[in-house]
Amino acid sequence: MDTKKIYPRYMMIIPVIVFVIFFVLPSTIGYAYAFTDWNSYVHDVSFVGLKNIIEVFSDRTVPIALVNTLIFAGAKTIIVTVLGFVFALILNRQLKTRNAIRTVYFIPAIFSALVVGLIFSALFQTRNGTINLLVQMFGAGKIQWLGSRWTAVFAISIAEIWRNLGYAIVITLAGLQSVSPEYIEAAKIDGASGWALFKNITLPLIMPTVNVNILFSLIYGLKMFDLVYVMTGGGPGHDTETFGTLMMNEMATGRYAQSVAINLVFTVILVIVAVAYQKFSERWENAE
């Protein structure tokens, strides 16, 4: 099919112009401030070269933020993708209550990050939190879940996974429902087992859907900010900082250029990760 006959080239002019005016130009101009001394204490902005970028890489909190960001992104991507796949397989069956169950699984996705953060902050509260009450039932002492780095990272990860699992289920379920029943029936007639059906028919056909799910989870996991800001504010100290909270803190203290520099470095990391995964997923799909 010749797509040129369906979509004339001139139809792309307006979207491209809008994209350039409202995204490319503001982003480019904004990133230019990363190479200046822009802050709340000076009126005349001057060029400082790579000074702010060098400060980003020499800041002690940046490695902490990088590790935390990678943990959030990795945990979210793996667990959300796997659980989303498992629950989607269950909900794809002919269950009488499947519509109600689908609604229940998707409910967390409609909550704002503020609501989810407050809910899980209450659950992981040291004194009267539900999690600590359950822990005490088994004879253990109270745990300061949000008072130390790794327990706080764990609590935030659980909250983020709970909030985004519904999206993964819906996306994967859409992919499963796009698989033609004729393929399944033909394979069953040929004597294929359940595992063989899944491995050789279902999984290859929904790999594009799985790749979209992984890419979204990875990118939004790398962009973790809202739940961290609500639950810990990047603390205790700087133990749960991410690139998002670093940018927020720099902006709040009037160090605007440093905030933009952190954003620039983070954007480069996001682009590299997205492009690398896209290339990997294309090879994976072609191999299938």
The percentage of residues in β strands lies in: under 5%
How is the CATH topology named? MetI-like fold
Q: How many helical stretches?
A: 13
Low-confidence stretches: none
Please give the radius of gyration in angstroms.
23 Å
Q: What integer is the average pLDDT? A: 87
The CATH architecture can be given as: Orthogonal Bundle
Helix percentage range: over 70%
Could you spell the SSE succession in H and E letters?
Answer: HHHHHHHHHHHHH
The CATH class is Mainly Alpha
- Strand segment tally: 0
The CATH superfamily title: MetI-like
Tell the overall outline.
globular
Termini separation: 25 Å
Largest sheet: none
- Assign the structural class, choosing from mainly alpha, mainly beta, alpha/beta, alpha+beta, or little secondary structure: mainly alpha
Q: How many discrete structural domains?
A: 1
Could you describe the 3D structure shown?
With 288 residues, the chain is mainly alpha-helical. The protein has a single domain (61-287), classed as Orthogonal Bundle (MetI-like fold). Helix content is 72%, strand content 0%. The protein has helices at residues 3-6, 13-32, 51-58, 61-91, 98-106, 113-123, 130-137, 149-177, 181-189, 194-222, 226-231, 243-252, 256-287. α3 (51-58) crosses α13 (256-287), α4 packs parallel to α8 (149-177) and α4 (61-91) runs antiparallel to α10 (194-222). The longest helix has 32 residues, at 256-287. It is globular, with a radius of gyration of 23 Å. The model has no long low-confidence stretch (mean pLDDT 87). It comes from Faecalicatena orotica. InterPro entries: ABC_transporter_permease (IPR051393), MetI-like (IPR000515), MetI-like_sf (IPR035906).
